[in-house]
Amino acid sequence: MIDLRSDTVTKPTAAMRHAMAHAEVGDDVYGEDPTVNRLERRAAELTGKEAALFVPSGTMGNTIAIKLHTQHGQEVICESRAHVLDWELAMMAWFAGCVGRPIAAVDGILTWEQIRAQVKPLSPHAAPTGLIAVENTHNVAGGTVYPLETLREIGYEAHRLGLPVHMDGARLFNAVAASGHSAAKIAAPVDTVMFCLSKGLGAPVGSMLAGPRVLIDAGRLLRKRLGGGMRQAGVLAAAGLLALEEMPARLSEDHANARWLATQLATLDGIQVDPARVRTNIVFFDVSGTGWTAAAFSAALKERGLIMSAFGAREIRLVTHYDVSRVDCEAAFAIVQEVSRLRPPV
């Protein structure tokens, strides 16, 4: 199978497996796991923050961040297709007691002008704004990347109003590779940032939440409440350290493969995709012109050894990653081409 569903399907490298087998460990709940401690220090250093927290998942990292920044009954401003809104089982409401204030934005990129129009003060009628959340890269918008000046304006203006900003940077290092800016520069305008080790960076488990030390210390307690207090977690952190040191430099290969696939797909009758919009490792393409539904098209691909995800009735998403080579991408395109020429099922 060629698996292009997501970069979450990557498997740890041989070097990661070796590091995990030989990791120096302790009890992380007591703060005594030296490998976890090294990973947290390195994550803080790379993002330019005072401290960082190792968590099992990106959803947990985002959930903790939202809870740290808000009070029950507040609103969280986010893009209308944001992961924190649509893909995290309503943890914004369930755990933090907040509601989302979604804003539809071109390419998933919020502007301060859009945000300012939705900021609400404390009043007898409306829930006040408690937090602004941005997603970089934006998954469902197609892996789009925030311009640095847009992030800086959002951060500056939000802080002038006394509002915190959190970045869901699950694919932060894809944004680094695409923009040429460091992780620290991208994260500088926001108060907290979460990024995943287990997507494009290839570690088997884990994400990092970075920010001011006082918030990260409080976040450690919230992690325990959510069941994320791990013991000899250095076995996992060892892979995370290698992911941070060795994997970011190769993400541009994934981006190049995604652009290549988009360019090839654009040549097929009935398939709509704009290769110029592909910034990172995510491609959405519309198959409705072939007469197929996305679900049926995806099922036909799987029968032929290719896995991609249907999104809605018309679109399919593919995500490139280090377990899929250019040769694999060429084979994937051939399968899509074959299916696109078939008569759709009645």
Structure notes:
With 346 residues, the chain is an alpha/beta fold. It folds into two domains: 10-246, Type I PLP-dependent aspartate aminotransferase-like (Major domain) (Aspartate Aminotransferase, domain 2); 250-340, Aspartate Aminotransferase, domain 1, CATH 3.90.1150. It is 40% helix and 15% strand. It is built from 14 helices and twelve strands. The protein has helices spanning 14-21, 34-47, 58-69, 83-86, 91-94, 112-116, 148-160, 172-179, 183-187, 213-225, 234-246, 251-265, 294-303, 326-340, and strands at 2-3, 51-55, 75-79, 99-103, 129-135, 165-168, 192-196, 207-211, 282-286, 306-307, 309-311, 315-319. A seven-stranded mixed sheet has the order 2-8-7-6-5-3-4, with helices on both faces. α7 links the parallel β5 (129-135) and β6 (165-168). α2 runs parallel beside α11 and α12 (251-265) packs parallel to α14 (326-340).
Which key phrases capture this entry?
single chain, 346 residues, alpha/beta, Aspartate Aminotransferase, domain 2, Aspartate Aminotransferase, domain 1, 2 domains, 15% strand
Short note summarizing the structure:
With 346 residues, the protein is an alpha/beta fold.
* β-strand number: 12
The first-level CATH class of the largest domain is given as Alpha Beta
Overall 3D form: globular
The named CATH superfamily of the largest domain:
Type I PLP-dependent aspartate aminotransferase-like (Major domain)
Total separate domains: 2
**Structural class estimated from helices and strands:** alpha/beta
Mean pLDDT across all amino acids: 97
In percent, how much strand structure appears in the residues? Answer: 15-25%
Distance between the termini: 26 Å
CATH architectural label of the largest domain: 3-Layer(aba) Sandwich
The biggest sheet amounts to: 7 strands, mixed
User: What is the CA-based Rg, rounded?
Assistant: 21 Å
Return the CATH topology of the largest domain: Aspartate Aminotransferase, domain 2
- From the structure provided, what is the oligomeric state, counting identical versus distinct chains? single chain
Helix content: 40-55%
Widest sheet: strand ordering = 2-8-7-6-5-3-4
Q: Tally the helices: what do you get?
A: 14
Task: List the uncertain runs.
Answer: none
Order of helices and strands: EHHEHEHHEHEHEHHEEHHHEHEEEH
